[in-house]
């Protein structure tokens, strides 16, 4: 069974003559531990799709089902709990809290969920060690490089052991080397740690790290291609596979 | 273009613009409102005095304000150049509230009269009297009076009918001889009653005495007039004042003091406003680095950037000032409406509308707009230093790690140390200066204290309120901008310090006042005149009344106060005559220096017991001999002790024996009486007789002593509570400051809030985050406020102590009030920003730049 399923997912912004259809009847399925990239030109609806799957926004029509649970039936509180326990987010601008240390930032979803601070820190430390930041636990965001900050964000996304990680242009603000590190890490999230990853990107080289690429254009799905190791190797380095 | 941009920026952030402008509005409101209010009160007092002086060329009065022998007229009437002269005996008589209508709940339309005894032949030569019905007074008239039309209307009398007036010998009925038209110089409610000079002398017990000589000169040449005035001065000697009536009274002085205090409070309010505006503009600049960089990139000069920010300040300053002026006017007019009737009833002063002088208007506008623009200046200059490169960097909220200005911290610590040294020195002037040092010092060290203090308070909040890491985040949010938090806390500090200091003063005053009240008004019965403390305008009773009281069976002691005004070293002094034997038995003074033996000195020699205000006003000390101005020249008195009673604490007062008062001032009118019954006396029977006797002297209200103490303490407490509420009102800008800072924080951290929501924070948690932040901010401000307030309170108590010595009481109530106000303000300030933050849509917040 799919972990993520969208049925005729539609999002229209505005009303009447100014209405803009951001997504038009999108049907997507993501299996557990699958790494899916969503690609397309600017304004094609990539981020909108990601936000709808993450329960950050509500669709105009259609539905999203995560792990068998339909999101349209959930109130704000229910959506918040779903995000807290089943979904992890990674953003383009990292969005770390500047006044908290790496370990405090990574522990945030747990402390917000009422996990005692001590335990939350232990779990956050484990994840930071896994993403290779075991020696930077006490560093504040401004003392970390862009790539390191994004790895803290990935640790934060994983700390609550979610089944799904949503990444919105996670390499958009990074140089090539850091981008590869982060994409490789996401590959590892799916392969090693068994989480489904849905990543929005407009960089084909980064998209090549995924198992499958969905192409959007003007709010509709125009193509879908499954990458084999062979095809992937022709487009990019694939260190995680 | 700049104005258009500034305007759009302002309207783009409506809440913040409103809050910042409110800060200006509030400061201007206080400065303007209080300054139009108090001059109209002052004018009312002055008008009362000036109303008596009329339009004559020269008036001769005793420097003491007391009556003098009528023969003095002969010394001035023969002076070359004096064309007309008229002696008179003017006496203001306050009337009890129920004198004419018999209802003490409603003040009579006539609350006071000016009894003027004139010489019917001489008076019309210096003033014009248009009698419009009946006739003018004639020599030899007895029990006849000329009254004004408004008084006739109020009493419903016509020529030939009579009306009653209290006198020292009981109530007298006067027949209306004639009626004067309404005179614009007279204040309504304060009516002139003209009688013949002998009649007035009889009614006031001042036989053969007058207190004013009006003189008119035969020339309009200035030089000649001056020489005539000098001739008059030479003829009457230094114990007389030649000129228009002096307008300086104790009341006037205390009203002026109040004005100075209010102006200071207004300045403090504007000062807090300045903090708020400074904070806002700093944030505006930080927030717009991107925009400013872009403007610089497309060719805007540094000057244009400065102008852009300053124009925003100017717009807000102008709008805030205009609104503040309007609200201030309403405040002034409203308070006058409210206090007008009370003032008429208790102080017998008619209050007009608010007075707006062009000077005040200009000053207030300059202050309001000036403070806003000045507060925007530093941020504007900082803005102009933003480089075009900033436009290219990703927008992030500005963060300060640690505090930047170590020099500021050190300077602040030095100032605080100086303030502490000043307290140890016990020197008043140093202590006052220390208060200022402490305030500035705290403002300077505040940024460095934000982190340690908020980390302590956040633990407290975690324990009490938010266990899910929210308090920790809130602490982080505050400490990321220590300067901003510190400035906000400083604004809160000033507001709350006022509450604590006010509390200290009130607690100390109340404690001391209660002590003195119980001591000085402990008698069984008190005979209270209409106006307490303003003895000159009360009509008392001849000594016979007290003698009659003494004769009542069951009465043990009767002690009276007699009044005369005098001067020492040019300072007006209220002189109270007591009987050194009975006074300590029935009442008593609270001694600050010396003791009860001083009463014996009063009986044996020309000795004084003076109050603290007397020492402060005349610069004398215990044991000194001072010259008292009397109608017959100066008399030397020795200061035997320092003490006060409750009725005269505020007024510069000296107590003498009634024998000396009679010998040197010719006064033996009792203006205040206290009476004790014998133990075991038949009190109902005695009270009945006392009441019957008092009925003939309606100027006195007979009250049982304990009831009177209760009433007085209740009134005092009510007045203090009013003062306290006003202080809380003055702390309002700190609410605006916190609200502003929190709102700015929410706007600035929109994306972070979006992220928190995305990773699973509930709306409740976000809202709690803002509330926790508000509580932390409030706790910081309150902590500073308590520190500063304790010091300021000490300063106030010791400052006031020079006039009215009192024991310093630790302001427990003030501190509790400040903590409560701080916390309530904190929660109130959080409401709007917390709702805003909780309502943010996640996706929009994440996309926010």
Protein described:
- The complex is a heterodimer of chains A (241) and B (849).
- Chain A has a single domain (34-44, 73-235), classed as P-loop containing nucleotide triphosphate hydrolases (Rossmann fold), CATH 3.40.50.300.
- In chain A, 35% of the residues lie in helices and 24% in strands.
- Chain A has helices spanning 46-53, 76-86, 102-112, 117-130, 146-158, 176-191, 204-207, 229-235; strands at residues 4-13, 20-26, 29-30, 35-39, 61-66, 69-70, 87-90, 164-168, 196-200, 212-217, 220-226.
- In chain A, the strands form two sheets. A six-stranded mixed β-sheet of chain A has the order 7-8-9-4-10-11.
- The radius of gyration of chain A is 18 Å and the shape is globular.
- The relative contact order of chain A is 0.18.
- The model of chain A is unreliable at 233-241 (pLDDT under 50).
- Chain B has 27 helices and 22 strands.
- Chain B folds into four domains: 1-55 and 258-395, no CATH class; 65-238, no CATH class; 419-515 and 715-849, no CATH class; 530-699, no CATH class.
- Chain A binds chain B through residues 51, 54, 56-57, 76-77, 80-81, 83-85, 88-89, 91, 93, 95, 97-100, 104, 107-109, 111-114, 117, 120, 140, 142, 156-157, 160, 173, and chain B through 394, 396-397, 399, 401, 467-469, 472-473, 476-477, 479-480, 751-752, 754-763, 765, 841-843, 846.
